[in-house]
Amino acid sequence: MNVNKVILVGRLTRDPEIRTTGSGQTVATLGMATNNYWTDKSGQRQEKTEFHTVVLWGKVAEIAGQYLTKGAEAFIEGRLQTRVYAGKDGVERKTTEIVGESMQLGSRPQGQGQGPGSTPRQNSPVRAASSNAAAGAAAAQAPKDEDIPTINLDDEREDIRIEDVPF
Q1: Can you list the domains of the chain with their CATH numbers?
Q2: Cα dihedral angle (101, 106, 108, 109), rounded to 10 degrees?
Q3: Is the full-model pTM beyond 0.85?
Q4: Of 45 and 124, which is predicted with more confidence?
Q5: Which whole-number Å values give the CA distances from 94 to 16, 82, 148, in the listed order?
Q6: How distant is the alpha carbon of residue 42 from its chain centre?
Q7: What is d(CA 137, CA 90) in angstroms, rounded to the nearest whole number?
Q8: Which DSSP state fits 108?
Q9: What is the per-residue pLDDT across 49-74, written as a single tens digit (0 to 9) for each?
């Protein structure tokens, strides 16, 4: 059995780059960062940040372009893919990317959505899965100002209470 599965939960390092192929297919390229924490032998807390390139296609790419910005949190499921390309200097290069097959939006970056006439939002109301076009289309039509109760796993200070679970 062969498995090529990637799950990332991280923050965008830049705004998504959206483009359209010659056949009209939408493509989004995201830069994401994920952190790993551990305690070393001397008891010191350590952190390592990894940077990833994520490529999204179709409706998921459109939703990413509409809702994601630098600093936003996202959950991406997909697969690893290595491609070969010729650099500007003519030298052949390889790059390994995550081809995202589904996406869930997380919390927005601090200070965003706080302008006049906007309502503060902790999490985006949109979830999109490329394998279910109808769900993605319905999610794209969700009102932008809708507040959906969520649990932010970054806030480890308080215990999760059953009353906080929205379902």
Answers
A1: 6-164 (2.40.50.140)
A2: -90
A3: no
A4: 45
A5: 22, 7, 41
A6: 34
A7: 41
A8: P
A9: 999 999 999 999 999 999 999 999 99
Query: What is d(CA 13, CA 100) in angstroms, rounded to the nearest whole number?
Result: 16
What's the CA gap between 35 and 59, in Å, rounded?
28
Residue with tokens 């372009």: 65
Q: What angle do CA 18, 136, 133 make, to 5 degrees?
A: 100
| C-alpha span between 68 and 124 (Å, rounded) | 9
Q: How far apart are CA 105 and CA 123, in angstroms?
A: 7
Residue 106 confidence (pLDDT): 86
CA 97 to mean position of chain CA atoms: 14
CA distances from 161 to 121, 124, 130, 154 (A): 21, 22, 32, 15
Distances (CA, A) of 40 to 45, 46, 88, 100, 154: 6, 7, 42, 33, 22
**Residues pairing with 73 in the sheet:** 11
CA 28 to chain centre: 11
For residues 47-85, b (16+ Cβ closer than 10 Å) or e, as one string?
eeeeebebbbbebbbbbbbebbeebbbbebbbeeeeeee
